[in-house]
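Notes, p. 3: input format for complexes.
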Amino acid sequence: MQTILITGGAGFIGSHLTRLFVTKYPEYKIINLDALTYAGNLANLADIEDKPNYYFVKGNITDMPLLQNIFEEHRVTGVLHCAAESHVDRSITDPLAFVKTNVVGTATLLQVAKQSWNNDFDNKIFYHISTDEVYGSLGGEGFFYETTAYDPRSPYSASKASSDHFVRAFYHTYGLPVKISNCSNNYGPYHFPEKLIPLSINNILHNKPLPIYGKGENIRDWLFVEDHVKAIDIIFHKGKIGETYNIGGHNEWTNIDLIKELCRQMDLKLGRPHGTSAQLITFVKDRAGHDLRYAIDATKLKNELGWEPSLQFEEGLSKTIDWYLNNKEWLNNVVSGHYAAYYDEQYHKR
Ligand code: NAD
Ligand code: TYD
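Output follows (350 residues plus thymidine-5'-diphosphate):
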């Protein structure tokens, strides 16, 4: 019997991962530990909250006594560590919040796993979910490989890089059985509308400007979130201890081309004349230290474990838009309250 602690399970990727594990592995006990920050939302898990193998604990990954209790009471055998502060713009405004959760929180979780497992590492796994942003910024050519030297450039990516280093240090120093994956930009249902795609969908629905940083020439490699969590499932069960796996979509878009495609699809779905949504595109002041390009080489994952993305981007984007159009109540709830204050603060200074 496996007991898996998922941290940050009420967030975007965490909720997809929790749903996958709870439904695919009814024999596993799944504990979701989440502090329910602005990004955590139990509505993301409403369809599985009554499953007998699912448990929710509200709490912080920096709270060592709480973590110790969870490990002891539930005899945790695996960790899927998703909890993080995840938004680059917020990291520019408040870097220390990222140090607390991403660095101190991860180190606390590692320490509790090490103490609780007490050198009995058989059938234990500490899986750390990380980002391609730790590798820095690419020029026009080349890819991020698992061997690419770390070169984080935002407070967010620096905090994630630091957490990755702690995970590897616990492997090399104490033999903790760790796995790490570094994934490219995700998109899909339940994505918090501070990030580019859901923010733009929400703004198109409300005929508000679509803020494009700089000239919109920055490039991201987009992956449908369900493909990401399928990769995590495969790595968790079949990946090698101590290894790192890059996960990516081989799907590079400049921000401006992506938003034009989004506008095209939204016009069609909303029955608006072609070109209506694109008129909302507004170029605004660039993000400080804005990384130019991310692109993942996921050959290792394909060759060793057979994973490949299942969806073409246009199809994944269409599914994503449909989900937001069919879940306006979710969207409206998320953008009420503190969201308006965040939006004003973030976009009125640009
Ligand atoms: P998110 O911001 O949507 O969710 C983060 C979750 O963690 C929220 O539920 C939040 O309440 C919880 N949380 C935050 N601080 C916490 C704390 N101190 N204690 C307990 N819970 C806390 O993030 P996401 O986009 O789902 O990202 C999940 C993970 O995947 C992160 O580690 C992120 O770095 C990584 N990642 C994200 C992407 C992406 O495109 N979103 C890509 C690659 C990797
Ligand atoms: P984001 O979704 O914040 O992800 P990340 O910074 O982690 O890649 O941003 C994706 C890209 O879109 C990034 O190049 C910044 C840009 N962007 C905008 O142009 N406007 C926006 O309002 C936001 C949120 C992002």
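The chain has a mean pLDDT of 97.
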